[in-house]
Design brief:
Layout lengths: L5 E5 L16 E11 L16 H8 E12 L4 E5 L6 H9 L12 E7 L2 E5 L10 H4 L3 H14 L5 H27 L2 H25 L8 H25 L1 H14 L16 H13 L5 E5 L7 H17 L3 E5 L3 H7 L2 E6 L2 E6 L2 H43 L2 H17 L13 H4 L37 E8 L9 E8 L4 E5 L6 H9 L6 E6 L5 E4 L3 H11 L5 H9 L5 H10 L5 H4 L8 H13 L5 E5 L7 H13 L3 E5 L3 H15 L5 H6 L7 E7 L2 E4 L4 H16 L1
Parallel strand pairs: 4-8, 4-9, 5-7, 7-8, 13-17, 13-18, 15-16, 16-17
Antiparallel strand pairs: 1-2, 2-3, 5-6, 9-10, 11-12, 11-14, 18-19
Length: 727
């Protein structure tokens, strides 16, 4: 039987870390290693004892994600964590939140919002109370404990307070056991002996608390009832006193402000959490994390399911948060503009190492390009120098051997030594001139390190097939005076909407949740029939439609057909129109190459891979119009960039519904920059068939209006609203 994956975290200081009762928002852990194992670290297949321990054993059993890394976080700094899918970002964040890394003090308060298998979880908040109202569920641990104990005393059953205090004690015993296990694994010698004694005591304490919790109510004697009831009273008084010091009224006011900022309406604050959809539950979890004021806050893709107003509000809230709090924030997001606005430093997880950069994302990318240019030129210059030296060595050797000239041979030998040992880095770590006797550290080193040119991330590529040519010109789709309402007396969703799209056009649709964006898409695709107006399409039009729930549909199909692969799915859908080789080529161009396409079941693919598969499903027949509705939800940062590049080179028309400002902006602005490099642009623009219109529209109250200044115009209007909300 295969056990669940286990995270094994180690570091250089493992043996010397003590239980630390002082919380800290600063972390400095050297020699960090994180491995995901398929079984418990202590188990072996054959039961034999080996000398392999710790890191070497972990490597044999599982997959190493970080090796000899340096985790360094400063108090109050907002970090953006970058790294491709599969590099270990989520595992690192989980190891931090669960304090599996030995160098993180146990008393440090860490909260986390994390996405796993499409579902969000909030750690460090004891989860959401599903049977409570939205506002009531967004409370800290002390408030929940007080509420739990208070309700036990309101019950007519005198044993309810007893069960409540025993449940709380059992939870405390579980936490103490975790700390004792961790402490025992870190210490050796006399301290290790004491730690193991403490571990046995913690295990015994947990067994006792479990026995009391599981005890039949009929067997609880009067003395135990009186003792536990008194303990519950004392704990309730202590927690209520703590809440008074925390100013509970202010906390509830802040919770209300956060929920309203994240998009909740006033009348929705009393709804039970259990009645909410996944997206709104995610907002509740985000609010429960924001309200905690921890030492370290981890936010993994917090903008998913937020509209642009919510994203802008969260941006501004976190910016204000940095001015009033010393909380350290670690942020993972595919939203480039969001990372740019919130993060002060960048952490890059790549090649099993953590690299740091002071500055936001834009500064990091500019620096990366400058470093590529700088080291690339240095390497090219050195290669020319080496080529010249090698030519002179060959010439001197030839002349020396022919004439017996020892000077020529010595000169050739000296130059060969220079090529072998003196080429490579010409600058020291401090930026000065490299000196062998000072900068070549280590007796085993005899030559300088080679010049390494920073390389772009591999694998984050995507390309789309060209659109099928139309036999005769004309608009692809035309909406004329479209009005839509589900029932006659219902509110109008779309009100006199007009839109014309030609081949090559780029149109971005933005708007807040509930503004009618998805309804407009369904009208365009023919799923909804307009109440008034006409939808006219080109007779030969082929549409590729990516819906908001495309990934969820694939996940559901993967569950129902466990053996279904990406290649098998496409072969069934194309019905022989394309052969296996063509489909493999298509999937490869989407980033699903080789065995991933043919051997990995759909239900085992990541969210980003499912997006690529969903795209392949809609472009295999080379459509002229792509309609993409919130396509970035499951993508990582690098894949969004690759998607933007792929869409920019697509020769068909694109209608993009998204709150990702970078992606919408790239469709409007990127190709203007590219067009400026072409000669004869004016002549091309005179030809109607090659004209590309780039427009951004905003839907509000059923009306669709074009934004003359694109995304920035809409964003500025939202910033004004947010500033009023945050006052």
């Amino acid at each position: 039987m295969t056990s669940a994956p286990t995270i094994l975290a180690t570091c250089k200081q493992t043996r010397f870390h003590l239980l630390d009762d002082n919380p800290s928002a600063e972390i400095d852990v050297e020699g960090l290693g994180i491995t995901v194992t398929s079984s418990s670290p202590g188990s072996t297949d054959d039961g034999s004892k080996t000398k392999a321990k710790g890191k070497s054993k972990a490597k044999a059993q599982g997959r190493e994600l970080i090796s000899d890394g340096h985790l360094r976080l400063k108090a109050g700094i907002h970090y953006g964590l970058l790294g491709r899918n599969g590099t270990g970002k989520s595992t690192l964040l989980r190891a931090m939140a669960e304090k599996l890394i030995p160098g993180i003090p146990h008393a440090t308060r860490i909260t986390i919002l994390q996405q796993t298998d499409g579902e969000y979880t909030a750690g460090g908040t004891d989860g959401l109370s599903m049977d409570k109202g939205v506002l009531e569920s967004i409370r800290n641990e002390a408030a929940r404990t007080a509420d739990f104990l208070s309700k036990s005393f309101e019950s007519e059953d005198p044993l309810q307070p007893v069960q409540a205090i025993r449940k709380i004690r059992h939870q405390h015993a579980q936490k103490k056991l975790f700390l004792a296990q961790k402490n025992a694994s870190l210490k050796s010698g006399a301290r290790g002996l004491q730690a193991r004694k403490d571990l046995k005591a913690a295990e015994s304490n947990l067994e006792s608390s479990f026995a009391l919790l599981d005890q039949d109510q009929e067997n609880i004697d009067a003395d135990a009832v009186q003792s536990d009831t008194q303990a519950a009273v004392e704990m309730l008084q202590a927690v209520q006193s703590q809440l008074e010091d925390m100013k509970l009224a202010d906390t509830e006011k802040e919770a209300r402000r956060i929920l309203l900022g994240l998009g909740f309406k006033e009348d929705a604050l009393e709804k039970k959490v259990s009645t909410l959809s996944g997206g709104w539950r995610m907002r509740c979890m985000l609010a429960s994390v924001l309200i905690q004021n921890p030492d370290i806050m981890i936010l993994d893709e917090p903008t998913n399911f937020l509209d642009l107003l919510g994203v802008v509000w969260l941006e501004n809230y976190l910016q204000q948060f940095s001015e009033s709090s010393q909380t350290t924030i670690i942020l993972v997001s595919h939203d480039r503009d969001f990372v740019n606005s919130v993060c002060e430093e960048i952490v890059v997880l790549r090649d099993q190492k953590l690299n740091y950069f002071k500055g936001n994302l834009a500064a990091y990318e500019q620096n990366f390009e400058e470093q590529k240019l700088y080291w690339g030129r240095m390497k090219e210059a050195q290669e020319r120098q080496i080529s010249h030296l090698e030519a002179s060595i060959r010439e001197n050797m030839k002349i020396g051997k022919k004439t017996g000239d020892e000077n020529k041979l010595r000169q050739a030998k000296s130059r060969q030594k220079k090529v072998d040992d003196r080429m490579g880095l010409q600058v020291s770590a401090n930026g000065g001139r490299f000196k062998l006797n000072r900068d070549l550290v280590g007796y085993h080193l005899t030559a300088r390190a080679e010049i390494e040119v920073p390389q772009d991330e591999k694998g984050a590529t995507m390309s789309l097939p060209d659109a099928t040519e139309l036999r005769f010109p004309g608009p692809l789709v035309s909406l004329e005076g479209i009005t839509f309402q589900y029932k006659k007396n219902d509110r109008v969703i779309l009100d006199d909407v007009n839109l014309v799209m030609h081949i090559g056009d780029r149109v971005g649709i933005m708007g807040l949740n509930g503004s009618g964006k998805s309804t407009l898409v369904r009208v365009l695709t023919g799923s909804n029939i307009p109440s008034k107006g006409k939808v006219i399409t080109h007779p030969r039009l082929k549409v590729g439609y990516y819906g908001q729930h495309s990934v969820e549909e694939l996940q559901e199909r993967g569950k129902n057909e466990p053996s279904l692969t990406a290649l098998g799915l496409l072969m069934a859908e194309v019905e022989g129109t394309l052969n296996e080789g063509a489909l493999r080529g298509l999937l490869s161009s989407m980033g699903l190459a080789g065995r991933i396409a043919s051997d990995v079941p759909v239900n085992k693919l990541s969210g980003g891979q499912l997006v690529r598969l969903a795209l392949a499903r809609i472009v295999w027949n080379a459509p002229q119009l792509l309609i993409l509705d919130e396509i970035t939800t499951h993508l990582d940062f690098h894949t969004v960039t690759a998607l933007a590049t792929a869409l920019s080179s697509f020769n068909g028309a694109i209608l993009l519904v998204s709150h990702d400002r970078f992606l919408v902006r790239s469709k409007r602005d990127m190709e203007h920059k590219l067009d400026e490099e072409f000669e004869g642009l004016e002549e091309e623009e005179a030809d109607e068939s090659t004209t590309r219109r780039r427009s951004v529209y905003v839907l509000k109250a059923g009306k669709m209006s074009e934004q003359q200044n694109g995304v920035e115009q809409f964003e500025k209007s939202l910033v004004k609203r947010v500033q009023k909300m945050l006052q």
